[in-house]
């Protein structure tokens, strides 16, 4: 980025774009839990194939652009 870029962005803020990447993983669930003494714990967690879902989007001065 040259020294003209900050001045150009002040004159033309509509050209500024922020890119963001986020992800969600399904293997973060704990397979164990706690109960009072003598009671059984019933429930379900994900087991087997784990996956990661990634989402990429861009934010402009007037819109959110997502593929």
Topology as H/E string?
Answer: HEEE
Main sheet strand line-up: 1-2-3
* CA-based gyration radius: 23 Å
> Regions with pLDDT < 50 over 5+ consecutive residues?
none
- How many H/I helices? 1
Give the key terms.
67 residues, mainly beta, 3 strands
In short:
With 67 residues, the chain is mostly beta strands. The protein is built from one helix and three strands. β2 and β3 form a beta hairpin.
Outline the structure in words.
This protein is mainly beta and 67 residues long. It has one domain (10-32, 40-65). It is 10% helix and 27% strand. The longest helix is centred in the N-terminal third of the chain and has 7 residues, at 5-11. It is rod-shaped.
């Amino acid at each position: 980025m040259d020294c003209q870029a900050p001045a150009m962005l002040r004159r033309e803020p509509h050209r500024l774009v922020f890119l963001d990447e986020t992800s969600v993983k399904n293997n973060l669930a704990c397979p164990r839990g706690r109960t009072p003494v003598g009671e059984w714990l019933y429930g379900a967690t994900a087991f087997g194939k784990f996956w990661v879902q990634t989402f990429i989007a861009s934010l402009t001065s007037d819109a959110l652009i997502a593929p």
